Amino acid sequence: MKRISPIVPMLGVAALLAACGAPGENTGTNAASAGNTANANAKPAAAAPTKDALFALDKQANDAWIKGDAKFFESLLSDKFVSHERGKRMDKAGLLKMLGEFKCAVKTWSLEDPQMAMINADTAVISYEGTFDGSCTGPDGKAMKLPSPIRAASVYVREGEKWMGAFHGENLIVDPKAPPAPSAKPEAKKEEPKKDDKMAANSASGAAPAKATGDANTDALLKVELAVWEAWKAKDAKKLEDLTAKDLSFVDIFGHGTFGKADTIKDWTEAKCEIKSVSVTDGVASAISPTVEILTHRGTADGTCYGQNVGAVYGTSVYVKDGGAWKLAFTMNMPTM
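Structure (tokenized):
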């Protein structure tokens, strides 16, 4: 469902610098001098982002992605960057490595319909639609046509003087009542290697395969995530109101985005889904700031939406600390196939 398997994010970030504030009111020469010295030593803070500014930066990042400019992303992605594809988390190092393994030929591309929400004063999310005519060739030498149109979402976090990319994801835009059939048969289930075989393979490679582990807030965030899913199942608007931040946004598996708390809760409680049960597992949480965490997880719903079976999805949720409680501020679900 992505432009490149596993993914090639097109995340734009930049240093939005703000001028130092004017010195406080002083009447004496020494006081004025001290005020000016303090301002000279203070680091400028990143200006609050605007939708147009972040959208322009994502366009620049698209251009860098098409050119395979890993250096651009190296300087502009947060060290806390996360992407989540096919149930696997990818960090900044993994993304940079992957960028060098693909060559893309894109004839035309365009981005439109940007939407932005502030998660808190230091975190923002922007989402938009993109269309692409081109293909990318991976390390196996096979070319793959770029999925189009897509809806993308990027999360930015303020780090000192810059706004840095902390997450990016994309979903193909499809008709929820008539989603496209899988283009290929699912892979045959592979036989699980025996314990001795696993140990031998790990020994030969020098290390066991890395597995993402969550931070100390993982269990707490998983409980909130499950509560949100249960409230969605029950179409409980009051419960969803309590569990979510003041500004809430969502991108679903069909590439549909909803921005604004009232509209998102309305979307979640409409009679388009009939769900019997839900579960949330495989949670991994990581902090992108002291008050904001990204939780990746696998969610499963037994039921239908728009007459289509829901099944399992891979979810990425951004939580913000609000009055001592973690509140859901943004979530994006991706299909498992």
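The chain has two domains: 51-172, 218-335. The mean pLDDT is 81.
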